[in-house]
Design brief:
eight-stranded mixed beta sheet, alpha+beta
Amino acid sequence: MHAYRTHTCGQLRASDVGSVVKLSGWVHRKRDHGGLLFVDLRDHYGLTQVVVDTDSACFPVLERLRVESVVTVTGKVVARTLDTINPNLPTGEIEIRAQEATVLSAAEELPLPVAGEQEYPEDIRLRYRFLDLRRETLHANIMTRSAVIRETRRRMEDIGFTEFSTPILTASSPEGARDFLVPSRIHPGKFFALPQAPQQYKQLLMVAGFDRYFQIAPCFRDEDPRADRLPGEFYQLDLEMSFVTQEEVWETMEPVMAGIFESFAQGRKVTPAGEFPRIPYAEAMLKYGSDKPDLRIALEISDVSDHFKGSGFGLFDKITGGGGVVRAIPAPGAGKLSRKFFDDMNEWARGEGYAGLGYINIKEGTPAGPIAKNHGEQPTAALVAALGLGPDDGVFFAAGKEADAAKLAGLARVRVAEQLDLVEKDAFRFCWIIDFPFYEWDEDEKRLDFAHNPFSMPQGGLEALQTQDPLSLKAYQYDMVCNGYELASGSIRNQHPDLMVAAFEKVGLSKADVEERFGGMYRAFQYGAPPHGGMAAGVDRMVMLLCGVQNLREITLFPMNQRAEDLLMGAPSPAAPRQLRELHVRVVEPGKPAAGQPTAKAVAPDAG
């Protein structure tokens, strides 16, 4: 017989009754029922109940063990009585009558429970992640993650994509976040960067003639943590195609993404391939107040600025007269609720950092509330009619500068839907957001900046770049959105060197800067570059949605905490003086001057 097991803990069935088997695993639970000791033995594959008689030689061995100890049990498979069958367990029709037991590893007292999956402080869960990962739900989530990646690879290969690995040590790139820098020992004073994305490499693969590339790519960004983006590293389905338009990218990837979600939907509805709505960015910001709209919510925002211009309604008249806007968020059926609902929404808006939300509360066809009172009976009736509100509906108003009003309206749209139970259940609703602005105005720096990927193709090409207002330019840029999350971002790329230079000149970089910072791609475009485009989809967010969790830590093996620390491995940690000398690096702590320097500004990487 095998040294440790003949079967796994999830394998035995009624057909195995009478067999003598050997199982190894962790003691999940123990229950002492007087003359019998029940032990639930668990491994990666499942759980089997072991029964130990008090007069068995196994009893003193198993009775004194703490849970999560690792043991090997040999025994006979017996059928459970009808009243003890567990229909929720694959092995629930049988149990093992223990004959021998060997302790392979005794566990100390646990810092957190494994069975039961109670809520526990995050720092303890991450410090003892190896225990946390034994918990059923988290363990299942990690297995789902692996299955999603496997299914993704299969689908990409089935439609002619080839997986290539791109470098991890590379040059700094303007992907919109801080780089993780790696000092070079061989080249003192110079640094590699961990890739924020394989953007330039995958475009170079197209120039090199590989046509269809994909990769489950690790990406590294020195960003502040948040629930839907972990600090440090994340993974994405990165892909690129040659000789394609953006429509062909969409037509190629909708079946892949819809198919992956359908494979793991477990009965939940998925937007079918070929039916992803395509929503221009400007329309999304107007109707949904976000470029990541949750289409499970049917509510749409309306611009009602014209109803208040010159109306005499002081606050809104002043806002619209000064170039601001007023956006209306419908609340179907809210008129049947008490005033508390409306007051709570107003307080919620204040908690989000806004002045508040105006509202009209329609009860049995009669508009009420502060906006109705101040706006006047006839103008309010015209407004209600224009919005198509019913006799027991409500409506909220967000007013201010366009960007601020749009953001508040978007947040309020989601809040109203959640409070009124208007979010479609058990569905994944996809869409494309298209026609993004090519540039945006950086108010802090008082200059133009790229609104999205700097390597995107501007719509209209070089002529548009030279003749149009930069802030009116649109890009062949698109995002795939699902249930309010940006799942993927992509574009048709700019493969013309003169156009590339002209685009970067608008943000203050010269031709020499472009040649220095993006020399590999700039040179490549001079030797025959095909039209190409692609996208990158966040694997972590896909799995998060499919597992129905709100935090990426619930689908990631060894995440950092909210302070970007790995509590399990103790990272980041100080480097030894010898290591720093080899790398020609000196550490300057915040607030302390470097040797020979008056301030700590020398901490900047480019300061040596």
